[in-house]
Amino acid sequence: MCTPSLSLCTGAPIARRIARCGFELVACDISAQAIANFDEPNVCLLNDPVETARRVDAVIACVRMDRDLVALTCGGALFEALGREAPS
Questions:
Q1: How many domains is the chain partitioned into structurally?
Q2: What is the pLDDT of residues 32-82, one digit of tens each?
Q3: pTM of the model as a whole
């Protein structure tokens, strides 16, 4: 089974829906406040995107700006943690 990962700041509604439908979920946000505000049970909450990628089969990125997505990939480390090469 694929375990998705989501950012909680912009992805909280999606994360809640996935969790409430009974799917396994690892959610990640670099904001301690976003993690503290997310109260769904049985969800693994992390604050490190690379560590999150090591634990999941797929990453669903919910960000506001292109630069946020570039920052999220951590210079390709996120793709490496997923066992894939960074896109060129």
A1: 1
A2: 888 888 989 999 999 888 899 999 988 888 888 888 888 878 788 888 888
A3: 0.75
Distance CA 23, CA 20 (A): 7
Is 41 inside any structural domain? yes
Which tokens hold the place of 22? Answer: 């009974």
Check: CB of residue 57 under 8 Å from CB of residue 2: yes
- Asked if residue 87 is part of any domain, the answer here is no
Per the domain annotation, does 27 fall within a domain? yes
Name the 3-class secondary structure at 58.
coil
Residue at 86 is within a domain = no
**H-assigned helices in 21-72:** 32-37, 49-55, 66-72
Reported as type and span, the H/E element at residue 6 is: strand 5-7
